[in-house]
Every structure is written in C-alpha cells, then in structure tokens.
C-alpha cells in the first residue's frame, strides 16, 4: 500500500517501522522527495519536525548553539517526556552527553575523551582482536548453525566495552539484559513493561548498580575507565551520583549495542550481497571501506532530537523557537543527493559521507572503537568462512532510537 506524506511522517514515530526496513525506507524516501522538513503530530507524542535530508541534518549539527540537545534529546512519548522533566527537576534524571549542551557538554566529554583517542585505541586493538578471534571460535564450536545476533554479535562488543570499564565478567549478562530493556522499551520481547513508569525502572536499576560501582572506585581506584569517571572533577567539583551513573550508562550501553547491531547487520548485508562478500574476501584491503559501508547500511542510531533556540528557517520552512526537530540518520544515509545508488551495498564505497556517528561537537565519542571492533571481527571471520546462508527469517527490534536485527539465524561452514 502506498503511503501518503502524512502517513510517512507518522511512521517515523512508530517503533515497529524500524523493525521493517522496507516500510522505513519507503517512508523516508517519500519525505525526502515531498516534504524533507515535515511537521509530525503523532498520537502520544509532542509534535516535532522530521528532518530527512543529509545537508539539512549537517546544518543543524553544525549550528549547535541555535539547535540544542536539551530539553528533548530523543524521541519519546509525551508521558515519558513529562516524567523525565519531573525527575530532572528533582535532580534524579539521566543526564548523559547526549542530553547536554556547552559548556557542560565540552567539560563532561573531556572526562572520557582520552580513553577513546586513536593512541588509546591502538593500545586496545590487540585485546579487541583476541576477543574477535574468541567469538569466531565460538561460531565454529556452535556446529555450523546459530542465531548470530544473540549468540555472537551481542556479546563480543559487550565484552570489549565492559572490560574497558573494568566491570566483572559475572555482571556482563546483567548489563546485556538491562541494555536490551533500555533500548528495547518499545519491543514486545525486550520491554520490561508497557508503561512509561516501568521503562523508567530500568534506569533506576542501572543507577543503583553504578552508584555502588562509584563508591567502590572512589574508595579503591583501579586504573580503569570506571575509576576515571568515578574520580573525575568538572568545574572543580566531583561529579554527583546521578551524573556519574549517567556517564556509565551511556558508555556501557551505547558502547556495545550500536556495534553489535552493526556487526549483525553487516553480516546480513554480506549474505544478501554474495558478490560483495566475494569481493571483500578477494580484496581484504577494502575492509576499512567495507566497515564504513556496514555502518551506513545499518545506521544503528536512528535519531537524535534538537530544539530551536530562536525562530529560524530550514529549507524554506519556518521553525519557531522552542520547536523540536528529529534528525533522521537512516534517511540521511540513503540520501540520493549525496550517495551514488544509495540502496546498493558497496563494500568499496568511497567517498562515504555517512552520518551514522553524527557530526560536529556531538560526534560519537566511541567511533574509533566501533571501527576497530568491526574491522577486527570481520578480518577474523572472513578468511575462515567457507560458506554462509540464512537459516531462518531475520527479525528487527521495534525502537525509535537504537537498534537493528535482534535475530539472525545463519548456517555456515568455518575452517
């Protein structure tokens, strides 16, 4: 059934849309053509403008003093926005880097920046490659068939980031479950409950865990990233408990879930495009380009929101002060004006100006780590991969924020 422009706008606010690539990209392509800055008034949500063109999203990201992250950094229901606003007034709300603007953003970002700089990443790479080898070995041990998303991709980047933080391995499964509940709050399989209050309970459990970790790392620093966060000072003062816990939450969740979605979606893309798989196996020097193509193809972060400080215009559309804009990254990464044949998976795509990591001052802190993990995994897998095919239907997660395939049954032969 062909969508109308208004139906396409409403689809952006429907978590189920993001579990159906065909429907998602049909809606986004229509908006890019007919209404690239489109007003959406979806039931249950505060209104917003959907921004779907690459250049417009770049413009908004560049002008971070005009378009602020606060007070609405993500698309959430009006009820959730209300609850979060109330908790913020009480000083007990999640406040991560994606919630902040300068000067707070600049100072808080510096707390973890050194851990993700290229030099630090080069030092971490041998460990990442060792873990990648371990998880390819697990594929081999699985006997030629597995749910790649659940059994392999969900665990490899989780192990990397939680090891960097310094969390005990005994807590990894708990962190995975909490992350799935946090980002899968709209998914029938992952959600803890349907109400917004139940979704907030997940955050409270994260906070309780990380407050205990903060106490321990302040008492006994161990030289890991958790110790750096726990003992950081901003504006001359220690981070308060909720800012500390918020920092842990964004590192521990976004630091692995986005990468696991891209590893899963990247493998799916290679299965669906066997010519590109053969090309990559024959020309392994293309791997850095292939990794960025996987990132563009999957675009695990679906949106961020910005709020206009002053009356302004975007592509000739008047945006009043106080209005919110949704930046649609999957749409930007399929923009026909920027990408040659954007619906073709091209392992050697160059240039590749994708916006999956954002742009400007809010560019993803963990981008270098994500690239290292993706490259390490596929450089371990592809030389050992004799054959691979789907063993069932892939299943996507229902979300409006972070996600990809939650099920990828595969059948394969590994040497």
TrEMBL record:
<keyword id="KW-0349">Heme</keyword>
<dbReference type="GO" id="GO:0036199">
    <property type="term" value="F:cholest-4-en-3-one 26-monooxygenase activity"/>
</dbReference>
<dbReference type="InterPro" id="IPR017972">
    <property type="entry name" value="Cyt_P450_CS"/>
</dbReference>
<dbReference type="InterPro" id="IPR036396">
    <property type="entry name" value="Cyt_P450_sf"/>
</dbReference>
<dbReference type="GO" id="GO:0006707">
    <property type="term" value="P:cholesterol catabolic process"/>
</dbReference>
<dbReference type="InterPro" id="IPR002397">
    <property type="entry name" value="Cyt_P450_B"/>
</dbReference>
<keyword id="KW-0408">Iron</keyword>
<dbReference type="GO" id="GO:0020037">
    <property type="term" value="F:heme binding"/>
</dbReference>
<keyword id="KW-0479">Metal-binding</keyword>
<dbReference type="InterPro" id="IPR001128">
    <property type="entry name" value="Cyt_P450"/>
</dbReference>
<dbReference type="GO" id="GO:0005506">
    <property type="term" value="F:iron ion binding"/>
</dbReference>
<keyword id="KW-0503">Monooxygenase</keyword>
<comment type="similarity">
    <text>Belongs to the cytochrome P450 family.</text>
</comment>
<dbReference type="Pfam" id="PF00067">
    <property type="entry name" value="p450"/>
</dbReference>
<protein>
    <submittedName>
        <fullName>Cytochrome P450</fullName>
    </submittedName>
</protein>
<keyword id="KW-0560">Oxidoreductase</keyword>
<dbReference type="GO" id="GO:0008395">
    <property type="term" value="F:steroid hydroxylase activity"/>
</dbReference>
């Amino acid at each position: 059934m062909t969508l109308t422009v208004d139906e396409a706008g409403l689809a952006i606010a429907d978590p189920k849309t993001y579990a159906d690539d065909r429907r998602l990209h049909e809606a986004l392509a229509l908006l890019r053509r007919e209404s690239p800055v489109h007003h959406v008034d979806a039931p249950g949500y505060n209104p917003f403008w959907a921004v779907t063109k690459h250049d417009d999203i770049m413009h908004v990201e560049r002008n971070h003093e005009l378009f602020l992250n606060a007070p609405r950094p993500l698309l959430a229901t009006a009820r959730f926005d209300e609850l979060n606003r109330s908790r913020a007034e009480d000083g007990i709300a999640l406040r991560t880097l994606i919630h902040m603007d300068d000067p707070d953003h600049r100072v808080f970002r510096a707390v973890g920046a050194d851990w993700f700089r290229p030099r630090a990443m080069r030092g971490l790479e041998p460990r990442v490659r060792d873990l990648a080898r371990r998880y390819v070995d697990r594929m081999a041990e699985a006997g030629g068939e597995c749910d790649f998303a659940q059994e392999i991709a969900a665990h490899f980047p989780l192990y990397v980031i939680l090891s960097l933080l310094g969390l005990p391995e005994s807590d990894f499964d708990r962190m995975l479950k909490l992350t799935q509940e946090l980002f899968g709050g709209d998914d029938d399989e992952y959600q803890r409950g349907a109400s917004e209050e139940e979704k907030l309970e997940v955050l409270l459990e994260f906070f309780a865990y990380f407050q205990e970790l903060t106490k321990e790392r302040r008492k006994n620093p161990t030289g890991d990233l958790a110790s750096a966060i726990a003992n950081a000072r901003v504006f001359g003062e220690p981070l308060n408990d909720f800012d500390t816990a918020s920092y842990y939450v964004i590192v521990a969740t976004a630091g692995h879930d986005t990468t696991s979605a891209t590893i899963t979606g990247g493998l799916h893309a290679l299965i669906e495009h066997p010519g590109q798989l053969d090309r990559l196996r024959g020309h392994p020097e293309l791997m850095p380009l292939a990794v960025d193509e996987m990132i563009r193809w999957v675009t695990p972060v679906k949106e961020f929101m910005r709020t206009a400080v002053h009356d302004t215009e975007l592509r000739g559309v008047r945006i009043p002060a106080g209005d919110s804009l949704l930046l649609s990254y999957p749409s930007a990464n399929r923009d026909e004006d920027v990408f040659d044949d954007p619906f073709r998976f091209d392992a050697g795509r160059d240039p590749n100006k994708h916006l999956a990591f954002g742009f400007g001052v809010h560019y993803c802190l963990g981008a270098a780590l994500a690239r290292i993990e993706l490259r390490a995994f596929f450089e371990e897998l592809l030389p050992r991969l004799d054959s691979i095919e789907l063993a069932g239907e892939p299943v996507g997660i229902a979300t409006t924020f972070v996600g990809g395939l939650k099920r990828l049954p595969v059948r394969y032969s590994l040497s």
